[in-house]
């Protein structure tokens, strides 16, 4: 297949700027169109003739890095075009998170260094060990170690303030990509795509995160486990809050109770999904993603798994002398997770949802 020679095809001329390099590759893809059936990125590309910076940001966040297009492409190295669209979009994507994060600069620190996440986790552990010793509770179960009032005073701001930071980032994203008013149909379409992880099916065979050009649905299933594990854990906490404040039914809750029936399976799914994603990242070719951010992404996946694992261990240790230490570890990891949400890989879920909504909006025009 021959392409228009007027396209910018020199990979060395523009590669220092993530947006410009992604634009160069997307323009070649738009001329070729061999991969247009792979995922939502390629139909979105074909709807454009000229790609503004906001268009590149939208396409980068719409990409799920399934990598199918790379193995189908006839213009990868050693071809002179040197296309590597998964990498180009991954680098542009994390660059957009860096630019839009609020306060500025924090995302780059956390995304580029897994050690930053680990250090924050250790600080969280140490803080809560001190807190558990200094602030004795007055209730049953883990409230005997940390009172309900103290827990709310710590975790409510730690939950609300990161959500505020994410809201600022998403507002910046929405403006940059030029999206308009959101309708209910756009949200339904986006949530359906996210719930099914349909873009992680690639061209139908799944993602290539294993060896050579082997495709599987393993990454899709691991992502689904993490997603639904997180949803179940959040639902468990929400139900516990309702039981506490509205029905005056206080923790600890038995195994046959709604908080535990939601939280225990949720924790198991978090652990299984997180470990699965970590194993796939170890197998995957790092040159098909944002290599400089690999450590931060891996640290986030392991942190997420540890949140689920420590929660399960805490429940299993109920009534033993291990509760105090496990509680400090679990709450320290949860606090670290909350505080890092706007700046770690967790932010991708919010940006990805915004990209799916914007894409649904564009397709409806």
From TrEMBL:
<dbReference type="InterPro" id="IPR012830">
    <property type="entry name" value="Citrate_utilization_prot_B"/>
</dbReference>
<feature type="transmembrane region" description="Helical">
    <location>
        <begin position="142"/>
        <end position="168"/>
    </location>
</feature>
<protein>
    <submittedName>
        <fullName>CitB: CitB domain protein</fullName>
    </submittedName>
</protein>
<feature type="transmembrane region" description="Helical">
    <location>
        <begin position="294"/>
        <end position="316"/>
    </location>
</feature>
<keyword id="KW-0812">Transmembrane</keyword>
<feature type="transmembrane region" description="Helical">
    <location>
        <begin position="225"/>
        <end position="247"/>
    </location>
</feature>
<keyword id="KW-0472">Membrane</keyword>
<feature type="transmembrane region" description="Helical">
    <location>
        <begin position="322"/>
        <end position="343"/>
    </location>
</feature>
<feature type="transmembrane region" description="Helical">
    <location>
        <begin position="116"/>
        <end position="136"/>
    </location>
</feature>
<keyword id="KW-1133">Transmembrane helix</keyword>
<feature type="transmembrane region" description="Helical">
    <location>
        <begin position="262"/>
        <end position="282"/>
    </location>
</feature>
<dbReference type="InterPro" id="IPR036197">
    <property type="entry name" value="NarG-like_sf"/>
</dbReference>
């Amino acid at each position: 297949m021959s392409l228009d020679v007027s396209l910018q095809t020199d990979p060395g001329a523009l590669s220092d700027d993530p947006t410009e390099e992604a634009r160069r590759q997307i323009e070649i893809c738009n001329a070729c169109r061999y991969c247009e059936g792979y995922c939502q990125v390629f139909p979105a590309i074909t709807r454009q003739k000229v790609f503004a910076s906001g268009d590149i940001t939208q396409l980068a966040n719409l990409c799920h890095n399934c990598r199918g297009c790379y193995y189908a492409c006839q213009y990868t190295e050693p071809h002179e075009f040197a296309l590597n669209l998964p990498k180009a979009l991954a680098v542009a994507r994390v660059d957009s998170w860096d630019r839009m994060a609020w306060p500025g600069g924090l995302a780059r620190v956390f995304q580029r260094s897994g050690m930053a996440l680990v250090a924050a986790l250790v600080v969280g552990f140490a803080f809560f060990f001190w807190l558990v010793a200094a602030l004795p509770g007055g209730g049953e179960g883990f409230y005997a170690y940390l009172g309900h009032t103290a827990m709310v005073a710590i975790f409510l701001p730690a939950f609300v303030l990161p959500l505020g930071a994410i809201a600022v980032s998403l507002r910046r994203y929405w403006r940059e990509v030029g999206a308009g008013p959101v309708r209910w149909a756009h949200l339904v379409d986006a949530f359906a795509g996210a719930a099914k992880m349909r873009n992680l099916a690639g061209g139908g065979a799944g993602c290539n995160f294993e060896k050579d050009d082997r495709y599987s649905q393993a990454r899709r299933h691991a992502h689904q486990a993490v997603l639904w594990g997180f949803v179940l854990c959040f639902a468990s906490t929400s139900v516990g809050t309702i039981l506490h404040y509205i029905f005056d039914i206080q923790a600890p809750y038995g195994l046959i109770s709604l908080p535990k029936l939601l939280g225990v399976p949720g924790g198991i799914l978090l652990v299984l999904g997180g470990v699965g994603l970590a194993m796939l990242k170890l197998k995957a070719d790092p040159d098909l993603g944002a290599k400089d951010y690999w450590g931060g992404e891996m640290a986030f996946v392991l942190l997420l798994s540890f949140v689920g694992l420590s929660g399960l261990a805490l429940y299993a240790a109920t009534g033993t002398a291990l509760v105090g230490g496990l509680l400090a570890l679990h709450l320290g990891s949860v606090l670290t997770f909350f505080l890092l949400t706007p700046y770690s890989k967790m932010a991708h879920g919010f940006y990805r949802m915004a990209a799916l909504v914007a894409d649904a909006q564009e397709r409806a025009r």
